């Protein structure tokens, strides 16, 4: 079988790994042969911890089998949800249309530059569906190719759109790797010597976009222990993205949420160190991050990931909570600054709108502190005491109709936290305990080691609130911050 193939790729870096996944998806669609049996055999050998022949684990194929017509058909099938003319075609296969449907079809027929040129003198009016469909068919190749090449979240997001389907060049065609050697080659070479310039390109990099999830933020998991495992992991991610799209009325997909929810809820998805490649349409480069087992262990202790899937306005800024939390967990970085900002925002606005979210972030912070060996192992008891103490002290002051005292104490406590004046925090806490006659047992943990028990302090300040709403059963479930996230 191996002798029948003339070309091969090895997943020795993420670029080749992504190209392999994209090529296999194309080959499976077009029923083009490749060394499927060898790939499966390599996985079987690897799974049984036998002597592993690395020579087996290559993608082998014939590049001559990749025709332009077949590739265009694959692009149209694979990215049908992203192509305007596909949406128009689906909508045109009816006999009658409402005004809203006619407007929708016309908006799709002018969705980009190539479509505007094709339909510059043709507009759908409800009676000429066959003419419009014939125009799409007549120009299909150009429409598919130009839309795919130039759309911001498709090929253009990953590669230089001007080198699509061109032969191998001297500089990689990927965004962040491509160089116009005629203009900038010498300036990028060591001592301006072009002989010292090093870069690698491949015509197979054109298949990399098929390996990534598609959206404003795209991901590829370089799970390249074997090619079969590489394909499997990214297929799961792709399938879950499609499932999310089909379950949402607006059809928008959040690949970050899909990725991390699968890490949390699917124990066999990823439970080992792995490299993940990220591409954002706003950036002209790829980002690589290494997801460690310690971070995965933190994610897998999160019971309610959905609470973080929101954007919050703090002052004049809009903060993506999900992005901040996931980046903090994967980098094993505490979230003290954002926690304090959310509490301060509630104080300023005289609400508790952020309290559920803040409580969940405090719990994750505690998990991170544990992984960083900065305390946190026995924090649950202190946090329960802080939660209960905040509720009791606030109830006492509310009963005395001294809501202004709650706001005053809360502001002072947060200020002490913000400036790391832990002695001042302890003094204010003791003063509040004396004033309300409420015992705060968690305070002893703070006196002994404030930094290691800071989440208890955050929990107290977060829930010591005059503006607490009348809670529903759902709110009560969400407020069990010390039991689950």
Question: How would you characterize this protein structure?
Answer:
Mean pLDDT is 86; it is low at 190-198 and 469-485. The radius of gyration is 28 Å and the shape is elongated. The protein is mostly helical and 485 residues long. Strand 6 (311-314) and strand 7 form a beta hairpin. Strands 3-4-5 form a three-stranded antiparallel beta sheet, sandwiched between helices. A two-stranded antiparallel sheet has the order 1-2. It contains 22 helices and seven strands. Helix content is 52%, strand content 7%.
Shape: elongated
| Largest beta-sheet characterization | 3 strands, antiparallel
Trace the largest sheet across and list its strands: 3-4-5
Rounded to an integer in angstroms, the radius of gyration calculated over CA atoms is 28 Å
Gap from first CA to last CA:
52 Å
Element pattern in H and E? EHHEHHHHHHHHEHHEEHEEHHHHHHHHH
Name the helicity range: 40-55%
Number of DSSP helices? 22
């Amino acid at each position: 079988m191996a002798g029948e193939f003339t070309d091969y790729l090895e997943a020795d870096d993420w670029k080749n790994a992504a190209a392999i996944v994209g090529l296999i998806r194309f080959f499976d669609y077009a029923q083009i042969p490749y060394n499927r049996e060898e790939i499966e055999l390599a996985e079987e050998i690897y799974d049984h911890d036998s002597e592993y022949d690395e020579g087996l684990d290559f993608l082998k194929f014939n590049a001559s089998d990749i025709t332009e017509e077949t590739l265009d058909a694959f692009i149209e099938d694979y990215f049908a949800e992203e192509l305007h003319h596909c949406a128009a075609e689906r909508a045109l296969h009816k006999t009658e249309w409402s005004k809203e449907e006619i407007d929708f079809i016309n908006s799709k027929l002018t969705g980009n530059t190539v479509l505007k040129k094709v339909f510059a003198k043709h507009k759908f009016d409800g009676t000429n569906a066959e003419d419009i469909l014939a125009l799409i068919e007549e120009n299909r190749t150009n429409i598919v190719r130009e839309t795919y090449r130039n759309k911001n979240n498709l090929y253009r997001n990953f590669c230089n759109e001007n080198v699509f389907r061109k032969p191998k060049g001297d500089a990689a065609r990927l965004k962040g790797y491509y160089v116009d050697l005629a203009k900038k080659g010498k300036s990028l070479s060591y001592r301006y010597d072009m002989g010292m310039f090093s870069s690698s390109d491949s015509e197979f990099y054109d298949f990399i976009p098929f390996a990534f999830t598609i959206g404003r933020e795209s991901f590829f998991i370089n799970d390249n222990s074997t090619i079969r495992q590489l394909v499997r992991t990214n297929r799961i991610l792709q399938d879950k993205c499609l499932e999310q799209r089909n379950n949402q009325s607006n059809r928008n997909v959040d690949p970050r949420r899909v990725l991390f929810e699968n890490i949390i809820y699917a124990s066999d998805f990823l439970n080992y160190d792995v490299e993940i490649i990220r591409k954002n349409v706003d950036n002209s480069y790829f980002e690589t991050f290494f997801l460690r087992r310690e971070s995965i262990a933190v994610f897998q202790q999160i019971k309610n990931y959905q609470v973080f899937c929101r954007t919050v306005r703090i002052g004049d800024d809009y903060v993506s909570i999900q992005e901040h939390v996931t980046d903090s967990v994967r980098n094993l970085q505490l979230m003290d600054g954002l926690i304090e900002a959310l509490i301060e925002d509630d104080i300023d606005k005289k609400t508790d709108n952020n309290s559920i979210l803040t409580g969940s972030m405090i719990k994750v912070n505690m998990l991170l502190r544990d992984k960083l060996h900065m305390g946190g192992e026995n924090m649950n008891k202190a946090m329960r005491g802080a939660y209960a103490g905040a509720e009791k002290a606030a109830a006492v002051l509310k009963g005395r109709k001294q809501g202004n005292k709650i706001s005053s104490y809360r502001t002072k406590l947060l200020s002490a936290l913000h400036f790391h004046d832990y002695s001042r925090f302890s003094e204010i806490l003791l003063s509040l305990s004396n004033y309300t006659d409420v015992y705060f047992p968690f305070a002893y943990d703070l006196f002994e080691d404030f930094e290691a028990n800071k989440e208890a302090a955050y929990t107290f300040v977060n829930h010591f609130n005059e503006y607490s709403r009348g809670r529903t059963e759902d709110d009560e479930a969400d407020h069990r911050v010390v039991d689950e996230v």
